Amino acid sequence: MLNIALPKGRLGDKVYRLFAQMGFDCPDFFEDHRKLVLESAAGDIRYFLVKPSDVAIYVEHGAADIGVVGRDILLETRPDVYELLDLKLGKCRLAIAGPNDFRDRPDAPLRVATKFPNVTRRHYQGKNRDIEVIKLNGSIELAPLLGLSDVIVDIVETGTTLKENNLRVFEDIAQSSARLIAGKGGYKFKRPRIDSIVTQMTEAIET
Amino acid sequence: MQSQHELLRPDEQATLVLRRLYERYGYKKFRMNRFEEYDFYAVNRDFLANGQIITFTGLDGKLMALRPDVTLSIVKKTQADAGAADRLYYTEPVYRPCKHASAYRESFQVGVEHIGEITPYASVEVVSLAARSLSLIEADCVLDISHTGYVEGLLAGLPMDDLTRRAVRRCIEEKNAHELRLAVADTLSGEEAARLAAVAQLSGPFPQALPEARALASGEMMLAAIAELETLYAAMAASGEAGPLRLDFSITSDAKYYSGLMLRGYIRGVPSAVLSGGRYDPLLRRMGKPGLSAMGFAIYFDELARFLSAEADTAVETVVLYKPDADPAAVTRMVHSRVARGERVWAGTALPKGLTWSRVLEVNGHA
């Protein structure tokens, strides 16, 4: 039995379709999302649908053998896992954005609102820039509009939300997309199975 | 009746079995203080898995530390020289931040250190002890082997700045071939990038992985590393111990402390490595002991805590019930007689909560 942690939502559905194409389909995957654990028709794969930010936790602790998670989350949490494949789905970028008319004040600490405090600290440490991190859990774009922060570090997909709120991207920090990860302990003992999935997924992505 | 060995907890049984193994191979138990001067760890902070240390002020005003690592203390105290190796093992607590609890924890380590001259046989002996240690804990185990010379030799031959080199090491550690290709896209040719990506993904049983590693090797350092790995595998295979061995270059390490063979051990059912070790000649040089070489490993009992735990034993054979004013001599006689038959006995004035029992005996007679 191979345990797979998938992120709830659109990305999880897309990734599941990839698995289904490879023959690991699960009859009631789209029917009843109240079920937390779903088994493939052949009974050899078990899917867990979890919050996207929790996928790597399930994998690192060995509750799931493999999982799919955005690179943005991996950069933030740096779990001790293997990153085996870029699924090229859910593409976005981690970027610094702020009001269109923002002017930096280098003498004062820069106030940065973000869901990604570790990525933010590392980025500004690399630039030797003093910052104050304001950790938020959602609606990050609101922070500079209300004066809570000077800029934000957040995920940008199309940039529409930023535009509608008179914000713009100043700098990209990293590109992100969905990654297939494996727990180190589990990989040692289920390697042929996991490697075969990686090979099949690589072919499915490329076609 | 339970034997004395059965009375031990699973982790105590494992420790005992490991001690017996190391004693048989001529390793002597090393004992040490739990405190050291803080400065000693501060200068070697990078060697520690996590740089955080519990400190306190000693009676003489010196800043002291609760030992976060055993190897450093052993290296400091060793009297070994090239002609007379120290072959030591330890079963000691260490004090470190717990990865998942955001708190310090006392955890237990069992380990082996061979300090003096590491001959090819000595390398094989340490690897063999690591493999046997894992097998004694759980037969279904894997011992990953790497060699710093292979990856460092590969990187040394490629034109890269330090930042890229660090990114590449991290990608190799994560088996992350796609990010690795991106990291070197501007600096290396397609052929060189493909070779690096192949090394990042290279792992598996030695008979398959070692020829692949040899095919990718070039330059003195890489070829010397391959030769050492081949010698090691040949010796382990000849003694029938190569089963758990896997070649895996994702084990990377700090070159300031490690050079040569590196080990990581896993057992089925535990998500993280339970054994870690390798050759650490540079650490000896940093600590003022040039001319010596050393190799060792540690087994992390904190990672094994759940695997080596047992459910609480709630069963007794006999409950002895007595009245509060019962003659204590009569109760004692009854209890002793049942214990002498090898039974586990619980004596009280009412039936116990949370226990199961086979029989209840009542003591009649007042004091």
Could you walk me through the main structural features you see in this protein, from its secondary elements to its overall organization?
- The complex is a heterodimer of chains A (207) and B (367).
- Chain A has helices at residues 10-21, 55-60, 71-77, 117-126, 142-145, 160-164, 184-189, 191-206; strands at residues 2-7, 37-39, 45-50, 66-70, 81-86, 92-99, 110-114, 131-135, 151-156, 167-176, 178-183.
- Chain A has eight helices and eleven strands.
- With 207 residues, chain A is an alpha/beta fold.
- With 367 residues, chain B is α/β, with parallel strands linked by helices.
- Chain B is built from 13 helices and 15 strands.
- In chain B, helix 6 packs antiparallel against helix 11 and helix 7 (162-174) crosses helix 9 (190-201).
- Chain B is elongated and about 95 Å long.
- Classes of the chains: A alpha/beta (207), B alpha/beta (367).
Topology of this protein?
The complex is a heterodimer of chains A (207) and B (367).
Chain A: E1 2-7, H1 10-21, E2 37-39, E3 45-50, H2 55-60, E4 66-70, H3 71-77, E5 81-86, E6 92-99, E7 110-114, H4 117-126, E8 131-135, H5 142-145, E9 151-156, H6 160-164, E10 167-176, E11 178-183, H7 184-189, H8 191-206
Parallel strand pairs in A: 1-3, 1-4, 7-8, 7-9
Antiparallel strand pairs in A: 2-3, 4-11, 5-11, 6-9, 6-10
Chain B: H1 4-7, H2 10-24, E1 28-29, E2 35-37, H3 38-42, E3 55-57, E4 63-66, H4 71-77, E5 86-98, E6 103-116, H5 120-137, E7 141-147, H6 148-156, H7 162-174, H8 177-184, H9 190-201, E8 203-205, H10 206-216, H11 220-238, E9 245-248, E10 261-267, E11 275-279, H12 281-286, E12 293-300, E13 315-322, H13 328-340, E14 345-348, E15 356-363
Parallel strand pairs in B: 1-5, 7-9, 13-14, 13-15
Antiparallel strand pairs in B: 2-4, 3-4, 5-6, 6-12, 7-10, 8-9, 10-11, 11-12
